[in-house]
Amino acid sequence: MIVLGIESSCDETSAAIVKDGREVLSNVISSQVELHAPFGGVVPELAARRHIECIDSIVDEALQQANIHFSAIDAYAVANGPGLAGALLVGLNYAKALAYVNKKPLVGVHHIEGHVCANYLSGTLEPPFLSLVVSGGHTLLLAVEDYDTYRVVGSTRDDAAGEAFDKVARVLGLPYPGGPEIDRMAQRGCGTAIAFPRAKVDGFDFSFSGLKTAVVQHVAKGLNFSVEDIAASFQQAVVDVLVGRAIGACESEGYNQIALAGGVACNSGLRTAMEEACKQKNIKISMPKPIYCTDNAAIIASRGYYRIQNGYEDNLTLNAFPGRMV
Ligand code: KG4
Ligand code: ZN
């Protein structure tokens, strides 16, 4: 089955063509980073307008790169939440039009469930497994029981991990988006230079606002530490908590594999620490290629494929759900 996926939930316009949920025939991504950089964050109205401007050519490009025509597409999958309302509606309405005109099924996809499917594109992983989803808007531990059953085991009580990276980067005067910048800086700093706090929250939940405040206060004091050391020490604090909780949740669920997902899963410190911790515990680790970690439509097409396989199909009344929960 060949699925055309569309993603427009935030600041990436993307279209992808994926065969049988795992084989990527094309994955075209147009990033709006330069558009939003002067504002230090995503401006929702600008994001929606840019999606409208480029979605046509992105879908065309996806078909061209896969070297196929609309007649070869069996179904259309689109991320319909969570995300920015105006941005989501662009991709949703475009996908509806394609499904209607080409008389093929349409399926709405939960953006976060899509992130988890990055692991199906990069390897041979199959459920059950524990997924650590770390993105700009979410920090979740999900028990993925089968291709269609996701259960929340832990989540953040305040900031998402990516949000903390972006806010700390801003305080350090690094450009938007901050996550990759902190990652780069951290590689030249010392992770034990400053003892930033690791929040202790019940169960498998997370909290990053205290850590963020500690960095802000540290910078405000004007102490004589390098930006590289602050970045490395902050990143180490985030990574310690993410790895510890993920291993704990995996063991508590009785699983033997962990799958990373979301933009923060690109982080080199997290990838190295997770690999080492899993090796020690004899847990299999799945880490998608970075291009499948950040927002893209191949993950949406993959999730769409598995939804259709499980008997789901939406119709043209499908709406966007900006605040959709897992
Ligand atoms: O999954 P994603 O592309 O979009 C959302 O669904 O939110 O994640 C974006 C987030 C941003 O906060 C960005 O700073 C962060 O992922 N990010 C990183 C890295 N690459 C992207 N954070 C830390 N280290 C990275 N290398
Ligand atoms: Zn995302």
Describe the structure.
The chain is of the alpha/beta class and 326 residues long. The protein has eleven helices and ten strands. The strands form two sheets. The protein has a five-stranded mixed sheet, sandwiched between helices. It has a five-stranded mixed sheet with strand order 8-7-6-9-10, with helices on both faces. Strand 9, helix 9 and strand 10 form a beta-alpha-beta unit. It is globular, with a radius of gyration of 20 Å. The structure holds 5'-O-[(R)-(carboxyoxy)(hydroxy)phosphoryl]adenosine and zinc ion (ZN). 5'-O-[(R)-(carboxyoxy)(hydroxy)phosphoryl]adenosine (KG4) binds next to helix 5 and helix 6. The site of zinc ion has 4 residues, from helix 4.
Instruction: Characterize the overall form.
Output: globular
Distance between the termini: 26 Å
pLDDT below 50 for ≥5 consecutive residues: which ranges? none
What is the spatial order of strands in the main beta sheet? 3-2-1-4-5
Tell me the fraction of residues in β-strands, as a range. Answer: 15-25%
